[in-house]
Amino acid sequence: MSWFIIKIEETTSSKRFDLADFEKDLNDYERKVFPQAINRTVNDVGKKARTATMRELTKTMGVKKKSLKKRYFHTTPSTFRTLSFTWTGRSKPLPLKAFKGKGLKHRSQKGKMGYSASVMNKRRKYKFFKAKMSNGYEGAFYRLPNNKHQRSRSGKVGAYPIKQAYGASVPNAMVQDVVEKIWNKSTEQKTFEAKLDSNMKFYVGKLLKKSSR
Fold first, then answer.
1. Helix (H, G, I), strand (E, B) or coil at 55
2. Which of 20, 91, 162, 182 is the one with CA 20 to 30 A from 154?
3. Do 91 and 170 form a contact (C-beta atoms < 8 A)?
4. C-beta of residue 86 within 8 angstroms of C-beta of residue 9
5. Nearest to 176, CA basis, from 98, 119, 97
6. What is the DSSP string of 157-188?
7. Are strands 84-89 and 3-8 parallel, antiparallel or unpaired?
8. Do the Cβ atoms of 161 and 142 come closer than 8 Å?
C-alpha cells in the first residue's frame, strides 16, 4: 500500500493519499515513471497549497504579505525517499509594526502616546508609541517599567531605554480553523489525483519519445 503525505506543521492537517487502487491499473510504461510522477505531484500540490494558505494567513493575522518573510517559514520538499511535503511556521511574535496600525494623538500633557493596531483582525489600542530609530528602523515601542532600562549585550544598563512591542506569531496563526480549512481544501484527494494524472502523461510522453529515437 502506498501512502503519500502533504502536511502543514503546528497543526493536525496531515493528508495521506492511498493510491493502491490507482497503481493496479498502470501499464508497463506508467509503472516506470510512477515514482517520478508521484514525487513531482506531492511537491506540486504542496506548493499550491502553501501559496493559497499564505494568502489566508496574511488575512487572518492582519499583516501585509511582505511582512511574512521567508525566514518565518521552512519548507521540506518531497524526495523519492520521503514522498512527503512539509511546511512549517517558525518565529517569535512578529513586531507590532508588521500589523495594520497607526499612531494616536497625544493623550495627556505628559506626552504619552497611544498606538492602534489590528492583531489577528482584532483592533486594540496600546500604550505604545511609534518611533523611528537613528538607523532608519521604524516600529512600535514602550518604555520599561519603573524607568529600568534594558541591559545591552555588554551588560551595561541604560543602553536601550525603550523596548519593541510584538503581536501574534506565525505558528499561532497557522492553527486557526480558517487557515487549516484552506490547506485541507487545497490538498483534496481529487486535486492530488488530477495533478498525478497530468504528471503521469508528461513522463510517459518523455519516455515514449526517448524510446522512439
1. helix
2. 91
3. yes
4. yes
5. 119
6. EEEESEEE-B---HHHHHTSHHHHHHHHHHT-
7. parallel
8. no
Output the pTM of the full model: 0.74
The closest alpha carbon to 73, from 187, 175, 170, belongs to 170
SS (H, E, C) 189-205: HHHHHHHHHHHHHHHHH
Most confident of the ranges 44-48, 71-75, 81-85, 177-181: 44-48
Kindly tell me the burial class for residue 114, based on how many C-beta atoms sit within 10 Å of its own C-beta (0-12, 13-18, 19 or more): middle
Cell numbers 507590532 correspond to what residue? 96
Q: Report the C-alpha gap between 160 and 27 in whole angstroms.
A: 69
Q: Which residue's C-alpha cell is 515513471?
A: 33
Q: Among positive and negative, which fits the CA dihedral 81, 18, 202, 40?
A: negative
For CA atoms 32, 35, 39, 42, give the dihedral sign. positive
Query: CB–CB of 73/57 below 8 Å?
Result: no
Q: Are 37 and 200 in contact (CB under 8 A)?
A: yes
